[in-house]
Design brief:
With 146 residues, the chain is an alpha+beta fold. The protein is 23% helix and 36% strand. The termini are far apart.
Amino acid sequence: MRPLLALLLGVLVLSSCSKAPPPVGRWEGTYESGDTFIAARLEIAPGPQVRISAPDVTDSSVTSEDDRVTLRQNMAARLAGGWGEIAPRTMDFDGTTFRKPGGIAPQIEWDAGAKAMTLYVYLGTHPAIKMPLKPVSDFSDDPWPH
């Protein structure tokens, strides 16, 4: 009886140490603050093979709402138009955080309990922008909230 109990306990311990598989699916989102605009698409396939695009613009001359609308439309068009050129890349995934192979900086964070995906965007020497993404079955032509 003891060997069986020890075996079951060992299996339980080993299974609790295994990494969760990466989430598979598509996410998109936008970020806008002051003069910084980012539109992002993310697709994760098993492996994990990750396709990501996050064009950004920082432009202090965008002050009117009409300028902002035009910029959002241009960003959405850039995102959709360039998506076909984005090649999948392998990333390390520890059950929560995606990193470039051998990298230290987080690129994407997955909260399985909340089913929340966060993209880290690094612009120059500024601190990372943590962009929440929403799950989508297919990418939209315009990811900006209406």
